[in-house]
Every structure is written in C-alpha cells, then in structure tokens.
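Worked example

This section walks through a single chain of length 158. The input is the sequence exactly as stored; nothing has been trimmed or padded.
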Amino acid sequence: MTHRDEAVLAAVSGIMNACSPLPGLVTGGQPTDAQLRAAHAAGLVTLLDMRDPIEPRSFDQPALAASLGLTYVNIPVSGATLNDRTMERILTVLRDGASAPVFIHCGSGNRVGGALIPFFMNDRGMNEHDAVALAMQVGLRGPELLRWGLDYAQRHAG
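Given that input, the structure is written out below as tokens.
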C-alpha cells in the first residue's frame, strides 16, 4: 500500500468494509459527502460507483465528484447486470493505471468483492483461494456474486 492509498483509506475509514486490498485500490461501502471530500483531499483520483443511480444516497455523488474534479464512473451491479459486459467495464477502470488510486464502492462491499475476483486472479496472479479470501475481506457475502466473479475469472484465465 502506498502512502497515498493509506491517506485515502484513512479518509474513508468509517465506511463499512473499508480496506485497501492492493496498491492503488481502496474499497468499501457507500461514502458520505464528508468522506468523499476527505478522500479527494488525500489524493483520490477515480470514484467507481457500483450502485444503481436509483439507490438512495444522502447527497448527489456524481455532482460532488464533478465539483471536486474526480473521475466518476457509475457501473451498476445488480442481479440483472451480472454479465461479462459489466465485468469488462469494471476491469477497464481497474486496469487503467492513470486512474489510481481508485475508490470502488457499492452499498456494503458485497458487489465490490465479487467484481474484484477476476482482477485478483487474472491481473494480479492470485490463486482462487486467496482471491476469494481477499474478496470476502472486501465485503463479499453473496453466492451469486462469488459465482459471477469466479466464472468470469475461469473463462478468461490465460
């Protein structure tokens, strides 16, 4: 973890399941307005929001991100979007070195954990056991999200 990752993680430390599983990556649940401002001040570059725009929030996250100059990407993950297209959009953001550090979030970290399994395995060379354990540390709890991540990782290994 870099110094900037540590600073961004400290800024969002009150968020459910906040952690920094890899350099350039901070994960967690829904941030508050103040936490997002603090993360920006700590060096956050990209905000990857995996929540559907209709999910309730206490502030206008896209507008705040724009006002701070953050790169804001919304890729909603739900039962209807657990497909390769959604995964590939997420992986494109994570693979872009210029976007780091990235704060990737959903409501709790559950969706984040599922989406990170292929990144952990195929991009960072982790074995399945370690990737799943780290995804669970991030907040993964849903079996359907686990299957989505593992299935994609296994079909795209190489």
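What to look for: The mean pLDDT is 96.
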